[in-house]
Amino acid sequence: MNSWIKVARLAWKNPQLAYNKIRTTFKNEIAAKADYYFRQGTASRPQAVCIKLTNACNLRCKMCGQPREGHVPGEAKYAPREYFDQAVDLDVYKRVIDELAFIRPNLYLWGGEPFLYKEILELIRYSKARRYTVQINTNGMYLRRYARQIVESGLDDLIVSIDGPEEVHDQVRGLNGTFRLLKEGILAIQQIKKELSLRFPLIRVRGTITPYNFETISALIGVANELQADSLNFNWTWFTTQQTGIAYQKMMKQVFDTDAVSWIPFETDVILDPQKHYKYDGIKRELLRLIKSTSDLPISLSPFIKPDRVAEYYENIYETFGHKTCYSVYVKSYILPNGDVTPCPDFPDFICGNIQDDSFLSIWNGERYRKWRQELKKRKLFPACYRCCDLFLSDVKFI
Ligand code: SF4
Ligand code: SF4
Predict the structure, then answer these.
(1) Burial 227-257 (b: 16+ CB within 10 A, else e)
(2) Is the Cβ atom of 192 under 6 angstroms away from ligand 1?
(3) Taking residues 363-385, what's their average pLDDT?
(4) Which residue's C-alpha comes closest to atom 2 of ligand 1?
(5) How confident is the model at residue 27 (pLDDT cuts 50, 70, 90)?
(6) Mean pLDDT computed over 164-180
(7) Which DSSP string corresponds to 259-304?
(8) pLDDT of res. 77
(9) Among 25, 82, 98, 350, which residue's beta carbon has the most beta carbons within 10 A?
(10) Is residue 270 predicted with pLDDT exceeding 60?
């Protein structure tokens, strides 16, 4: 089936998400660029606010770039217990939701594992009552437990990270039974939706292409169909190299007087290991299978990289596939589990304010946010940007 027909069917299922998609495209492609060229570091209204509800997670996935728990002084791959205990009071989030109700940016809830934030369901209900579009990105471990409340909350979009068929998924997630649990959870949600004659939440399967699952990427079509998913999306591995990481750390110290070590867990030599180059052929083969698939499922790739350019993505970090600067900082904002607000999801070193102390909008166009945008404009890209997901914000292509 033609990819446009598939997308139209998805849009019909959720007109609000379709409207948001159009709004996002407008914001990314036109408004953000206008802000970038014509303003001095300020931005028009945010299109998405992404709340990282917790740093805690119940899994230990092989490809995870987030710090693990442990006391290793000076080792950025680890963080102390307090880091995982951070949580903002629900009332503070409610204040932000009220403040932004006249804009209603997309609300994207993530973590760690977002369901470890105790009041997540109340947060969704509160936001839905104010007509926000709410999306969650989860590892799926709590779906079975909260299936009914999730459906009844009115959540729009449930994005579940899956790495492949059962055996591959469990291996990547580092624990047997994870696939079975998420499958039971999703099917329970599908069943409750049927009982209540509801279409929401839409179930979106998200696969990340990593060195651990590249041979079974196309098998996710079968998995997504089995789960009666509404769409299937693939991301690439986000990473840094030591060279770009050190350059970033140096630049952050010089320009922003900030100790920026968040890149360290994202440094990977697994993919770049010359002995592993045969993997690119495997990824290419699997991509071609996706492209040739006759499945009715809408399948997207973000960013869209042609199969014959896969090696470039991994081998030449400076190749940005036409993305010369980052517009995300004019479009999206990230709230961390301690309330800090930052422009960058994976490298949250530069903090522009805290929602516990200030209103969100005063931070969004505050002095520090403006400084970040202006400096970025001057340099086009920071060294950490090359394989950051938000550099490729608008590059989602249905195949
Ligand atoms: S579920 Fe997500 S946050 Fe948790 S370990 Fe896996 S990749 Fe990291
Ligand atoms: S591309 Fe760069 S500036 Fe943009 S969000 Fe990522 S790290 Fe931040």
Answers:
(1) bebbbbbbbbbbbbbeebbebbbebbeeebe
(2) no
(3) 97
(4) 112
(5) confident
(6) 95
(7) ---TTGGGB-STTT-GGGTHHHHHHHHHHHHHHH---SS-EEEES-
(8) 77
(9) 350
(10) no
Return mean pLDDT, the chain.
91
Q: Measuring from each residue's beta carbon to the nearest atom of ligand 2, which residues come in under 6 Å?
A: 326, 328-329, 343-344, 347, 376, 382, 384-385, 388, 390-391
- Cα 213 to the center of its chain, rounded Å: 19
Distance (angstroms) between ligand 2 centre and the Cα of 384 equals 7
CA neighbor of 389 nearest in space, from 332, 340, 315: 332
Tokens of 295: 């499945």
User: What DSSP character marks residue 49?
Assistant: E
Taking the centre of ligand 1 as the mean of its atom positions, its distance from the CA of residue 12, in whole angstroms, is 32
How does pLDDT run across 32-88, given as a tens digit for each residue?
999 999 999 999 999 999 999 999 999 988 888 788 877 666 677 788 889 999 999
> Dihedrals φ, ψ of 300, to 5°?
-125, 160
Question: Does the beta carbon of 57 sit less than 6 angstroms from any atom of ligand 1?
Answer: yes
Q: For residue 25, give both structure tokens.
A: 């495209």
Pairwise CA distance, residues 151 & 192, whole Å: 7
Q: 238 CA distance to ligand 1 centroid (A)? A: 13
pLDDT in tens, 215-247: 899 999 999 999 999 999 999 988 899 999 999
Residue having the nearest C-alpha atom to atom 8 of ligand 2: 344
Show the tokens assigned to 163: 């790495």
| Ligand 1 pocket residue status of 60, Cβ below 6 Å | yes
Q: Which atom of ligand 2 is nearest to the CA of 332?
A: 5
Give the span between the Cα atoms of 296 and 293, in whole angstroms: 9
